[in-house]
Amino acid sequence: MSPSNAPLNHLHTLSRNLQPASLFRIRSPTTARSTPLGPAFIHIPAAMSATIAIPKARKPMPSALTFNLEAKCSTTKARASTLHLPHGPVQLPIFMPVATQASLKGLTPEQLAETGCKLCLNNTYHLGLKPGQAVLDKVGGAHVFQGWNGNILTDSGGFQMVSLLKLAHVTEEGVRFLSPHDGTPMLLTPEHSISLQNSIGSDIIMQLDDVIATTSPDHARIKEAMERSVRWLDRCIDAHKYPEKQNLFCIIQGGLDLELRKECCKQMVERDTPGIAIGGLSGGEAKDEFCKVVNTCTGLLPERKPRYVMGVGYPEDLVVAVALGADMFDCVWPTRTARFGNAVTSVGTLNLRNASYANDFGPIEEGCQCICCRCKANGGLEITRAYIHHLAAKETVGAHLLTMHNVHYMLAMMSSLRQAIIEDRFPDFLRVFFLKMYGHSSNIPQWAITALRGVGVDLLAD
Length: 462
Description:
Structural class: alpha/beta
Strand order of the largest sheet: 6-16-15-14-13-12-8-7
Helix content: 25-40%
Number of strands: 18
Number of domains: 3
CATH class of the largest domain: Alpha Beta
Low-confidence stretches: 1-23, 25-48
């Protein structure tokens, strides 16, 4: 593959239609003028776009992370490790809250830090839209822009292109879509996605991948998406300007087809990125299928690199995925559900809008050490369920308080899980977790029982 000095005619047409304020106009690294296609635009000949390209001979990619594996469960595939990133160490396994537009809805950076968060997500698509790349370059990146001293992971923007925008169309060049503002035709390429993330300055950046729902019946399209994701990774690697400061993670695709997943793992591992993500899940597939994919992929990935399962946020999904060998997770669910009056607790999700909580003067969760649940003598706010019930339907502060609680709960749960791995009592942790959440062994979902039996843990054993 070689850079094309003359992009396809239809791309010239696309370029002429783009306006100066368009979302995906970026400055070329070699000139001050604007280009809508991104630097080093690559045209892939049709003959090559039908296959996975052989990895180019490159120097080893510099890494801005250190991964220290500290403990392994003697029964399951669970691991405890520390990921050293440019903005500080992060203990794995970890749940990462999603601060979509450089803000966790309703929380200040200080309040987010109060939850114990060391690594959060920002959204490349939304930051490219607003404030835009020029502002991010001027201010010095998203850390400065949002006043956040912790680490940031950014997605590539591809998922939002396909899931949020009408008439999005994926081609070998990239993702074509219509501007959400004025309907202008636009194009996001792998090169441009990386350029945006370079401007954001995130500690972990994600490749642009070809995203397709796991529930799609079109096997040929799933195979195409997997192979294209590998080719796009090569373009992302070539476009990445700051590998010594930002860590590029590849994304494994292949739908629910385990053979495609195996082939994608092989190809991605050969590219030797600092970390590896398992993508395309949590899209409506059955939980047992989800578990098979995670288990298959983690079994083929390097032991000394972080493994990130994208879009996973339910507590029971997290603990099972950890048992299957995964390290990192993200999801909007804990924060989104807070805005509907729901508290995430060890006994399940509590809808505090229900009338039964109107006279419940206990904390959101007994024993929780978040700032909302702690008593005032210990520096907390001593918020009661009754108070949240009172606020939930009337005041946004109720959602803010529940957001702090929910994020803290998720992070504290992962910390407890990590300690159980270090002390080699993770199977017992799993049994206690599921019994407490579901009340009785007969209520535990079969998918979790089956998945954990596959790694040596019987949730139904006495």
